[in-house]
Specification:
single chain, about 300 residues, alpha/beta, D-Maltodextrin-Binding Protein, domain 2, 2 domains, five-stranded mixed beta sheet, 13 helices, globular
Length: about 300
């Protein structure tokens, strides 16, 4: 009888063990467990094409996901203004914003900046450029009359605010009447190459994109020339919803700020093109707010759509 009881207990144990094993390997259970882990959806502005953007940001997202107790999901948007338009509808929790798009998001969406990258030279800012071709015959603003200007997007500092300020400083209130044609290229890279390839006579873009492109395409430095530049403004930084989970937000910030102290983090930073991340606050954007005020824009009502 005792042997029979032992045999029955052993069989029951095996059956229960198999059941637990099947449950552990069951896709539905795995999905259920995975869904218990919170996620953060981060938007990316289209500074460069989508493949280059993802190649740059995905290692960073993977690194953060392993350390903050939440999964980072990336969403590359088709244009700068989409960050504002689609922040709620796309379910974004934060985004890497350019300086002007951040100020718009801060006013319209109540977002808070937490960190931005610093490059190998210790620089965490960029500036805008207005450029022409050396063979284009444009040396002053008067030479621009009737020409084609490639902007980037209405929600960019380098790609739109700088030209607005430049025209205003030179007494031109309606640049569309002054110029022959204007259009929005969508990315800084596209604006630069439209100028290089003679689709446009003038372009505006950010210096960091120009520098990266010029490192592999010497035509940019031999065929293009700078007319003017903007003041320095903060490099693209990460801003998060003010009402987002405070614990996860603080962990995210702490992890970013300490990446340069971790061997794996250092490798990810190199791929990202940064030395480290530094703490960032709304006050760091004072130069952008000053720029906006000088031009006379109202951020609350500003139309950033590229009609």
């Amino acid at each position: 009888m005792r042997r029979l009881v032992i045999s029955i207990c052993l069989c029951l144990g095996l059956l229960l063990g198999c059941g637990e094993s099947k449950r552990a390997n069951d896709p539905a259970t795995a999905t259920e467990n995975q869904e218990e882990r919170p996620s953060i959806t981060i938007g990316l502005i289209p500074e460069r094409n989508i493949f280059i953007q993802l190649d740059r940001y995905e290692p960073l997202a993977d690194y953060l996901s392993k350390r903050i107790g939440a999964d980072i999901k990336l969403k590359v948007l088709t244009r700068y203004g989409n960050i504002i338009d689609n922040f709620v509808s796309a379910g974004l929790d934060g985004a890497f914003f350019g300086s002007f798009s951040y100020t718009l998001a801060h006013v319209k969406l109540n977002l808070e900046p937490i960190a931005r990258p610093e490059n190998a030279d210790g620089i965490s800012t960029y500036y805008g450029l207005i450029m022409v071709r050396k063979d284009g015959g444009i040396k002053t603003i008067k030479d621009m009359k009737g020409k084609t200007f490639a902007f980037v997007d209405r929600a960019t500092t380098a790609g739109y605010l700088l030209p607005l300020a430049y025209f205003k400083a030179n007494g031109i209130d309606d640049y569309e009447k002054f110029l022959g044609e204007t259009y929005f290229a969508g990315t800084h890279e596209a604006a630069i190459y439209d100028l290089l390839n003679k689709k446009a006579d003038i372009c505006a873009a950010k210096n960091t994109v120009f520098t990266r492109l010029a490192a592999r395409d010497k035509r940019l430095t031999t065929e293009l020339v700078l007319l003017t530049r903007s003041p320095d403004v903060p490099e693209n930084g990460l801003a998060i919803r003010s009402d987002f989970d405070g614990v996860i937000k603080e962990e995210l910030k702490k992890t970013l700020l300490n990446m340069d102290k971790n061997p794996e983090g250092i490798n990810v930073l190199k791929r990202f093109g940064a030395k480290k991340f530094i703490e960032t606050t709304n006050k760091d954007y004072d130069s952008v707010y000053k720029y906006v005020n000088e031009i006379g824009l109202d951020l609350a009502t500003y139309n950033y759509r590229n009609e």
